[in-house]
Specification:
With about 130 residues, the chain is mainly α. It has 5 helices and no strands. Keywords: Hydrolase, Membrane, Protease, Transmembrane, Transmembrane helix.
Amino acid sequence: MDNKVWAAVRALFVAVLVISVATLGVAALIGGNWVVWLRGAAVAVAAAWLVALAGQAARGKRSAYVRIRFVTIAAPIGIVLILVAPDSGYPGWMKAEQAVVGVLVAAVALLVNRRAVRQAFPKRGKLG
């Protein structure tokens, strides 16, 4: 398995973590409703978890890889729903932040769903 892929995945997840923590800092400075705090904290925790999963996947752990694939496909869909919802409770600045997070996570989805990466994590019982 090409570790360059996992280094890029880890870097993208670290970027999501940094952005999410910065979002909580902005919420502390300018004030944020409960939706901002809940979403910001949840995304920060999820990003930390994904950084850890990227390390496990880089070491060949299939379950970590499968979780990353699932999250990186599902999360951008959820983010799009937040962005298009007319009265979601998210202020414009947080919708912009979530758009950036969505792009970063979608980039990970593109990386981990490439054929070479998928083939490095065969289903149990399959060798190739």
